[in-house]
Design goal:
- By secondary structure, the protein is mainly α.
- It is built from ten helices and no strands.
- Helix 4 packs antiparallel against helix 5 and helix 5 (about 80-105) packs parallel to helix 10.
- The longest helix has about 30 residues, at about 175-205.
- It is globular and about 50 Å long.
- The relative contact order is 0.20.
Length: about 240
Amino acid sequence: MATNPMLNEAAFKRAQESVRAVQPMTLQGTINKTFLLLFICVIGGMLTWTHYQSWAGYLWPIAIVGFVMALITSFKPAAAPVTAPLYALAEGLFLGIISAMYNAQFQGIVFNAVAVTVLVFFVMLFVYRTGIIRVTRGLAVGIFSATAAILLLYVGSWILSLFGVSTAYLTSSSPLSIGISVVVCGVAAFNFLLDFHFIDQMTGHYAAPKYMEWYAGFGLLVTLVWLYVEILNLLGKLQRR
């Protein structure tokens, strides 16, 4: 069972049924594709980082393009070799603008956020590989439920903001807001365990075609971007105190 909605067993099963390639999806191949997508994301971020004020007006159009690419990839995994890199580029452009805005307020915050994100990623990979934390059904259900609750919290807060209701519990630097951010960062980090486990299971039990490495790498990138944004937001709140 996968927490990441981009990584679902049904997609792997459908791909398995139609596979004709000699080379199947592998865990190492998935890791390689993930780092390639991350590289594309970083390149996109560098493009907007230096001239973020000029790009600021395109922030939401870029976000929409990324969202559309994510939808296409999730519903049509065979398109992942094309749509996943496009998603990574759009996310990079978006993150470059957001990161530069934060850095203009708090010098050095982006470097710290990137460092913490990378550290958490490799710590969770180490924890998974060594079996320090085993992915059980109970753990999977718990993290899935927590992730769904966070999604509902964000959607609900966005709807409330449209009616002028204060959502300071998410945006302020109060202890409650910081506590919520810490919990969200923790849930995002634990999503990596489920992502690693799910990909491991799929590559071990299903002969998925090679393009599914792009699909799985895309799912991991979604979690990675989510964690980075949450850590950046948390560090910003701490700086404002």
